[in-house]
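W.,

You were right to be curious about this one. When I first looked at the sequence I had no strong expectations either way, so I just let the prediction run and decided to look at it fresh. Below is the sequence, 159 residues in total, followed by the output.
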Amino acid sequence: MSAKSINARLATGFALLATGVLSGAFFYGWANVTPTFSAVPLDVHLAFRIELMKVNGVVMQLLMAAAAATTGWLAFSARGRARTLAIAATAFAVASILVTRFGNVPINQEMKRWAAGELAPDHLDRLAVWGTFNDIRVTTALTAFVLVIIAANLAGARR
């Protein structure tokens, strides 16, 4: 087995792992955590979300960075259609980072002010916007994962 082949297999494995964990984490939050926010009083909702941000702020950023880095590695080491798919997966992984950083995070900062007593009159609209950004980043992360799966199958079929 050549060094190129080993590199491509490692890149594939790590890209599958990183995008799979990222999309799974986002999907779990989307399907299970976010719906519970509307089932509790706003003060409980905000308190829980702020505590969640303390952990998610680090963990999710690391997962998003790992997904972008490993899909980039795969794009560098793959060939043919697998490379094209890996490039697209990288773009979707980076999109997850950008949507989070410039969409969700600013609204998260607003929520901290709301919890401190500065509830915005349009807070329900802002929560809906946060939900839209969340839908987008869940979709981009899942898309990156699916593209890596397809790229891995294409690369495996060539061996």
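Here's what jumped out at me. The first helix runs from residue 3 to 37. And, maybe more interesting for your project: The domain at 3-158 is CATH 1.20.120 (Four Helix Bundle (Hemerythrin (Met), subunit A)).

Coffee later to discuss?

I.
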